[in-house]
Recover the amino acids of this structure.
């Protein structure tokens, strides 16, 4: 009866091609910036300031680390609570990840290069996969 008062949980659809990355139809260019990410994910739930800035959207399972909020080179999506560090999100990413219209969210992979950007596995090949990261390919970060 009162379900219309509940906030709808936002689901994220990430679509990747060799030319573009979109999150809910918003094109993300890397490096990206704080304003772009707050437009897509809303206001962050918390930030940690150390040698880098760490920005968290805990309810969506999303976080990024950066030394400059205007040059964010990757976005991390956590899908596994096995990483219990303070750098993991409080909830896990429940959205979907697509590469050329094929779902890849639950597949095991190390890196999928998409030209200047890539999809990276979070966690080494020998470990449980913690999730994935979208951002500049390793050749673009040097």
């Amino acid at each position: 009866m009162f379900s219309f008062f509940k906030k709808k949980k936002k689901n994220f659809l990430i679509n990747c091609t060799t030319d573009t990355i979109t999150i809910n139809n918003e094109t993300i260019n890397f490096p990206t910036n704080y304003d772009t990410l707050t437009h897509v994910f809303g206001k962050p739930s918390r930030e940690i300031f150390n040698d880098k800035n760490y920005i968290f959207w805990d309810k969506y399972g999303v976080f990024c680390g950066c030394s400059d909020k205007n040059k964010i080179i990757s976005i991390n999506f956590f899908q596994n609570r096995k990483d219990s560090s303070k750098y993991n999100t409080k909830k896990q990413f429940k959205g979907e990840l697509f590469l050329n219209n094929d779902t890849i969210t639950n597949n095991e992979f190390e890196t999928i290069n998409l030209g200047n950007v890539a999809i990276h596995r979070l966690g080494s090949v020998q470990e449980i996969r913690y999730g994935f990261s979208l951002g500049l390919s390793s050749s673009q970060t040097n």
Summary: The two ends are 55 Å apart (CA to CA). The longest helix spans residues 34-41.
